[in-house]
Design a protein that fits this description.
mainly alpha, Four Helix Bundle (Hemerythrin (Met), subunit A), 2 domains, 0% strand, metal-binding, Znf_DskA_TraR
């Protein structure tokens, strides 16, 4: 694959062909940067948890510390799941299906992809999906 160069400040636009090489490179870089940020935060958390060897004589302080640790670990678990979605989006970039709605096959808007690069449904399909979930959840 030829190296695609992106000028500083490039953002995909609707005047270009959808998911051309520049757009795919833009989203690939965006996804990789997001994943690297998550991995760096996870590493920082791991280091902080390993170095935190506080012995709190006060039971309230100990409980607070344990609660903080549990919240941090839950956040890291959500981030771990997010890295899986990022990897799946990167795989879709490779196979050519990135940017297309899994339900309709139609292009997902560039604005939606820029805001949520792991999106697999168009805004309309996502709204239908959420309405169906709400209907069945109320039962």
């Amino acid at each position: 694959m030829a190296k695609v160069t992106l000028e500083e400040g490039y953002t995909p636009s609707d005047v270009e062909p959808f998911m051309n090489e520049r757009q795919r490179e833009y989203f690939r870089r965006k996804l990789l940067s997001w994943k690297n940020d998550i991995l760096r935060e996870a590493q920082d958390t791991l280091v902080a948890l390993q170095s935190e060897n506080e012995n709190h004589p006060d039971i309230a302080d100990r409980a607070s510390s344990e609660t903080d640790r549990a919240i941090e670990l839950r956040a890291r678990d959500r981030q771990r799941k997010l890295t899986g979605k990022i990897d799946a989006a990167l795989a879709r970039l490779e196979d050519g299906s990135y940017g297309y709605c899994e339900e309709t096959g139609e292009p997902i808007s560039l604005k939606r992809l820029d805001a949520r690069p792991i999106a697999t449904l168009s805004l309309e399909a996502q709204e239908r999906h959420e309405r169906r979930e709400r209907v069945y959840r109320d039962d």
